[in-house]
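Holo prediction. Input below; ligand is flavin-adenine dinucleotide.
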Amino acid sequence: MAEVDHLAAERATARFDVEEMKVAWAGSRHAVHVADRMARLVASDPVFRKDNRTMLSRKELFKDTLRKAAHAWKRIVELRLTEEEADLLRQYVDQPGYVDLHWGMFVPAIKGQGTEEQQHKWLPLAYKFQIIGCYAQTELGHGSNVQGLETTATFDPKTDEFVIHSPTLTSSKWWPGGLGKASTHAVVYARLITEGKDYGIHGFIVQLRSLEDHSPLPGVTLGDIGGKFGSGAYNSMDNGVLRFDHVRIPRDQMLMRLSQVTREGKYVHSNVPKQLLYGTMVYVRQSIVADASKALSRAVCIAVRYSAVRKQFGSQDGGPETQVLNYKTQQSRLFPLLASAYAFRFVGDWLNWLYTDVTQKLEAKDFSTLQEAHACTAGLKAVTTSVTADAIEECRKLCGGHGYLNSSGLPELFAVYVPACTYEGDNVVLLLQVARILMKTVSQLASGKQPVGTMAYMGKVQYLMQCKSAVSSAEDWLNPDAIQEAFEARALRMAVNCAQNISQAASQEEGFYERSPDLLEAAVAHIQLIIVTKFIEKVHQEIPGHGVKEQLQALCNVYALYILHKHLGDFLATGCITPRQGALANEQLGKLYAQVRPNAVALVDAFNYTDHYLGSVLGRYDGDVYPALYEEAWKDPLNETVVPEGYHEYLRPLIKQQQLKLSRL
Ligand SMILES: CCCCCCCCCCCCCCCCCCCCCCCCCCC/C=C/C(=O)SCCNC(=O)CCNC(=O)[C@H](O)C(C)(C)COP(=O)(O)OP(=O)(O)OC[C@H]1O[C@@H](n2cnc3c(N)ncnc32)[C@H](O)[C@@H]1OP(=O)(O)O
Ligand SMILES: Cc1cc2nc3c(=O)[nH]c(=O)nc-3n(C[C@H](O)[C@H](O)[C@H](O)COP(=O)(O)OP(=O)(O)OC[C@H]3O[C@@H](n4cnc5c(N)ncnc54)[C@H](O)[C@@H]3O)c2cc1C
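Structure of the complex:
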């Protein structure tokens, strides 16, 4: 706890129990406790220092990542941490590295696509880090179009092996994290060819490096793909390039849960949907949604605290200046982001529940919810990451000039975060997947098929296509039913409009292609409806703690009415609300901001982030920003000498030359 609390006055105005809000945010008292313990463990360990990260060279940064990962693993073993604790520790170390892909994709790929025998063989090795794995799917020529990958895995019945080969430059694996320098193994996605026939993309476990000296195995060429956006940031990760020259692997290293190749070379497909091959991506997409709320809440925490400390203008008579948080424009830019952080947190929890539910159904050979899982993970991944990336940049601007300093933490947070809009599926590509499913659902409405899950609202098509909002005052917008109806009607009408336009095209494909910009917007509307619905459902639950439910209610309304205001064109164009009702929503939004204002600092305190995790002089818990900024500047390597290196070579001769010229005049 800080000795001087410059934000004490802010904390005193909170009208709710912050400790109970921490529970609502974390999900349970147990979750608060574990997260707290792991965050402090990391913050108190000098090996996990990260304040110097943006000043390290690429090589130093990568070595620092290896060191942190090894130290983290040592602590996990020494302290016998559970999987939940170990994962939290990984998150609080807060440095992208090969470990993320090993645990987040290599292990899940084997779990999801390997037979029991294969899991038995490979997982214990991976769990103990006796091998390090990555997920090698994307190639130089193809990422989004998975079916377009070119790497081949040709079965050779003579030796009972697959021959893995990169036939072209564009077939080089390109991007996999952990591949460049750390991994010993990879799950490689390649076209399976047997008996002269191409059976499409399948996964194979391939050893890449020697377990003795880490040198590449014969026929394997690999390395790092080079520096990436931003200083520090994602450069701690060794995203790699990989080429195979007829590398042989035993047949039993094809991941054979979904389909098999027999000793004779016969291809056998189990009676399961082929899309299960994409299961690892679905798993990671749902975890990316949970991560979005973390990244967004960090940025918002920094911007809210700093906005409460920072003062500009407002005093004509020598009195105190205005805290920038009191400017209505600052509130209207910042509070929707605060509300979004909470919204994403709760929809992330729900998505995690959905994922677990679908996984259990799949185990029981019930594939009915696969499409719902795909649509929700793809759509929520796309919307939450796009909003979060933009929001981090907005928070930087909300912090004025100081937000541009590395010591604010925001430039690095942005640079680390922004590729989330691309990896695990480009956001546009993923939204078009959602749109396809929406169009399929609309087309089935006529046949009387009742949509289920998050599409169930479309079953109310008769009503939703013609309903008129009953809102007649600003307060009416506080009614969740009014919000829900407006969002459902907007999403459905946009989808139906698209479907009607597509049906007038020469073909379904042609229509989809022509209307894809509108389809993107329809998909976003559908996903925003899901987020709003899950927030409303959350607020309807029992929520203990003085004032906690009221605050969440206010944030839920801020989130919904902000989206309505921002996308007013959609709501008006589809006739869901009138211009007057749109204006009333905006009026109510202003009132809600005033309600949030005294609680803003406490609402970000409820995230329970340590100063180490935030990594920002502007977001310090104690609000003592200026001395910290001042001190931080002196730590820059440029300040190690008073007279800079290069002075004698370049500055002095220049100045002297000019002086000489002047003296000759
Ligand atoms: C320094 C560190 C110190 C710390 C140390 C700590 C040490 C120890 C820690 C211990 C920890 C212990 C516990 C840890 C636990 C967990 C850790 C979790 C960590 C997570 C971290 C993750 C990090 C993330 C990093 C991200 C890295 C990035 C990776 C990647 O990017 S991988 C590559 C991703 N690629 C893509 O996403 C490609 C996108 N393209 C596609 O998905 C598809 O091809 C498509 C969707 C575009 C489909 O295109 P197409 O139309 O051609 O499709 P078809 O194949 O023909 O199929 C059409 C048909 O299928 C349906 N469909 C499509 N996709 C799916 C699907 N996924 N599911 C279901 N159905 C699908 C589609 O709707 C069509 O259906 P229909 O025919 O119309 O009916
Ligand atoms: C930091 C980072 C880490 C990564 N880690 C891994 C990893 O560990 N393993 C791995 O296998 N891969 C990894 N990737 C690769 C990543 O999954 C791909 O980059 C991603 O799926 C996007 O594919 P792409 O690069 O082919 O983009 P492209 O598809 O080439 O996208 C280019 C543009 O085309 C547009 N576009 C493409 N198709 C369509 C369409 N059908 N309709 C409309 N617009 C379209 C996109 O919206 C985009 O604007 C990583 C990438 C990054 C940036």
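Residues 64 and 236 are 8 Å apart (CA to CA). That is the main takeaway for now.
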